[in-house]
Amino acid sequence: MRISLRGFLLASSAKKPDFEVLRLIFRNVLLLLKEKHRSGFVHMALHPKNIIISRNYSIELIQRECDRSCYFAPETLLKLEANKGVGSFGPENDIWAIGSIMFESLLGYPPLTGGSFNQLLNAIFTRYGNPTRFDMRYLSDSRFNKLQLCRTDNPPSSWFILGRGKFTNSNPQLQEQELNMIPKQLRQPFRDIIRDAIIYDIEARKTAQELLEMPFFSDVIESDIRQDIECRYYLKCNYEEDIESTHR
């Protein structure tokens, strides 16, 4: 039996999974991505529906057709906007996508919404914070000036987690409140790995191997008997993987 990550998250809304299980799942995803990137393969279609979980939380990445644009990196959206289909996707896009999926899975935020490239870019800036001019140095001044950057006087809590917002007197504890569901000793490692995956500067974005070497994954334990039993529970949930849900 198998279940998509999306189905797993739907099932776990009724039975909250062990946080260690999510670390194990994403460690296994990155191990697989590392090998694919080393072989010159870019997935291009990472989405919770396309991450397949089986016994002992082993992972398979598939290419099911689904609307994956909400997980595209901003540079990918900008290249597609300029009708540059060839070369729009690189390993860096996969890393951005995994960072976004981790953010969604661990914090419970729904992914971005929006239809056009401009709407998606605006949704990215709203969710993850505004880029700097240096971040987007590959853009012309005229194109950068057309980006719909967000107001910084009252940024959402997700900006603080990614280190792109400034605390105000009205919300000094907002960042910690957002991370309350994560074990305290893992909050900083979680911030660090997300910040290094969802980063606008392409050259500074970590590789799969570099993310695996970060403290967030340093002590992940392989699936034990208890976790295997829990995994069987999720695999038996038989959620329709294409079911419409607010967790899309």
TrEMBL record:
This is Protein kinase domain-containing protein. PANTHER family: OVARIAN-SPECIFIC SERINE/THREONINE-PROTEIN KINASE LOK-RELATED, PHOSPHORYLASE KINASE. PROSITE patterns: PROTEIN_KINASE_DOM. GO terms for cellular component: nucleus. Gene3D superfamilies: Transferase(Phosphotransferase) domain 1. GO terms for molecular function: ATP binding; protein serine/threonine kinase activity. The lineage of its organism: Eukaryota, Metamonada, Preaxostyla, Oxymonadida, Streblomastigidae. Pfam families: Pkinase (PF00069). GO terms for biological process: mitotic DNA damage checkpoint signaling. Residues 1-217 form the Protein kinase domain.
